[in-house]
Amino acid sequence: MPSLAAALGQELARLFEPLVVAARSRERWPLVLALVGHTADAVDDPGLRTALDDLASLVALGDVDVESWEGIEALLTSSSRAMNALRELERAVSNPALAGRLQRLGPELAEQLTAVYLRRYHARIFRLAALLTLVDPAEVLDARPAVFAGDVRVRAAWMADELHLDSLGPLLRDPWTALRAAYLPNNLATAADAHAAADRLFPHLRAVVSELGLASAVEQRSL
After folding, report:
1. Model pTM?
2. Taking CA 60 as the corner, what is the angle to CA 7 and CA 47, rounded to the nearest 5 degrees?
3. Which candidate among 25, 112, 191, 223 keeps its CA 20 to 30 Å from the CA of 12?
4. Which of 106, 121, 136 corresponds to the end of one domain?
């Protein structure tokens, strides 16, 4: 069984894996940017391209001796620098017109990479977090609209998971109040409120049950 330090190194490698893979081929960076709807031409910006290559070198954590305190410190330092560089990607854009399109590239990409990591490696945690209102899965949200500059599409429509880690504090301090606000609209004063509550709650419950390998069904019956 791997040690806690080794497990930490493995999870960090999984989180950054899409960036490490993208660094091996020029054609792969557009796939990373497509996670947040940006078109392939964005990679042609020299400033952004340099920042992406620098980021790739940071996230390639390499063979670190995670069984030593020095190795663990190096691992945490590298991952922290990588996350900071990821969040500030848009600052590296050279073209002013492109900078307007990419003004939230770093935070959006960090959010989606985290969501991809959770979906792929910790699906049960992802679904439980959604049930606890810490995540809005893309499948229950409307797609982000495409963006056009005149007749030219500069950003495709894209689906996004939304993370609400700022909700963790209120949830821990007063879980009933936080969950009631999310799932019991208007204190279920009317039948319409009950239907709205079911529409919010049951998809998350079914997703959790499905991840546990159990079958479920939803049925509506007239009274």
Report:
1. 0.85
2. 140
3. 25
4. 121
